[in-house]
Write a structure and sequence with these properties.
The protein has 324 residues and is of the alpha/beta class. It has a single domain, classed as Aldolase class I (TIM Barrel, Alpha-Beta Barrel). It has 13 helices and 7 strands. The chain has a 7-stranded parallel sheet. Strand 6, helix 11 and strand 7 form a beta-alpha-beta unit. Helix 3 packs across helix 11 and helix 10 runs parallel beside helix 11. The longest helix has 18 residues. It is globular and about 60 Å long. The two termini are 27 Å apart.
Length: 324
């Protein structure tokens, strides 16, 4: 991943952003001073983007692009090494009968399964991501969150998905959340950090915007909507706000940061709506797995079926792909 790089030499972080993190009062002033979100406007724009018609070659390209952006995930208490190996095999060859099918971006597992995933994916180019920091609730001490992160990184994880302390954020303890993200980022070493906002618990679009900027200021390589364990999870309006945040961040710093909607995206039609939003809100350069991901394992099955339809000219039932 190259999420924090730019196509040209990145300028120094602008003074207003540096000043914003100087102390608690400065950070609060910056976050509360962000423009409010026009709820009607953002929902109308998101709905409008979802009506775009994508056909023929463009649809085939969109399907392949979406496949390459999937983080194939298993995060269950009953996960076994065998299940992780099977998921890894699917990640590398999503449709074994169609060798030109793109591999997915990453396999995401709990920290204790990272070593198994790393071994199974060695040399494939598919990244290993690990949730950490007391996922999904995050209700544990910073020491345990950092230890959780270290376990994942030491086992070879390329990416770490952390959850923010939503309670602290909703209480307005922004500096506490900022410092926790910074600490986890430092513990990641060379691994990239995805910061999960759990937008379904943030209550307002204004809070989503503030949490997005807070995560970017603290060094998150990606901002991610949700754990997939809380409803609502990813939505187009929320993703729109997060895409706007990374677009504006790039405009001010020259740095490219990514966005990952997770949970509730199940169909090819849904995925294409999100790709249109990426293009229209953030920009074409975000249409890469380095800067946009789908946290939606069930989505892959529909993408594979629709890909077969595009290639073969007729619909193939679920018997033709591995349905998770």
């Amino acid at each position: 991943m190259t999420a924090t790089t730019s196509t040209s030499a990145a300028p120094a972080t602008p003074a207003p952003l540096v000043d914003a993190t100087r102390d608690d009062a400065s950070l609060r002033r910056f976050l509360l001073g962000l423009p409010g979100v026009d709820q009607v406007g953002v929902e109308q724009r998101a709905a409008g983007l979802g009506t775009r018609s994508i056909k023929k070659d463009a649809k085939r390209w969109a399907i392949d692009t979406a496949i390459s952006m999937v983080d194939l995930t298993t995060l269950e208490g009953a996960d076994t090494r065998g299940k992780v190996r099977a998921l890894a095999a699917k990640a590398v060859r999503p449709d074994p009968e169609r060798q030109d099918t793109p591999r997915v971006a990453a396999v995401c597992v709990y920290p204790d399964m990272v070593a198994t995933a790393v071994e199974a994916l060695k040399g494939s180019g598919v990244h290993v991501a690990s949730v950490a920091t007391g996922f999904p609730a995050g209700r544990t001490s910073l020491e345990i969150k950092l230890a959780d992160t270290k376990i994942a990184v030491d086992a070879g994880a390329h990416e770490v998905d952390m959850v923010i302390d939503r309670g602290a954020f909703l209480e307005g303890r922004y500096m506490a959340v900022f410092e926790e993200i910074q600490a986890v980022k430092a513990a990641c070493g060379d691994a990239h950090l995805k910061v999960i906002l759990e937008t379904g618990e943030l209550a307002t679009y204004d809070n989503v915007r503030r949490a997005s900027w807070l995560a970017l200021l603290a060094g998150g390589d990606f901002i991610k909507t949700s754990t997939g364990k809380v409803s609502p999870a990813a939505t187009l309006p929320v993703t729109h706000i997060m895409l706007q945040a990374v677009h504006d961040w790039h405009g001010q710093t020259g740095e490219l940061r990514g966005v990952k909607p997770a949970g509730g995206i199940r169909t090819t039609k849904d995925a294409i709506k999100y790709l249109v939003a990426v293009h229209e809100v953030a920009g074409e350069q975000w249409l890469t797995p380095d800067l946009f991901r789908f946290g939606a394992s069930s989505l892959l099955n529909d993408l594979l079926l629709q890909r077969r339809t595009q290639v073969d000219g007729h619909y193939s039932g679920p018997d033709y792909v591995t349905v998770d």
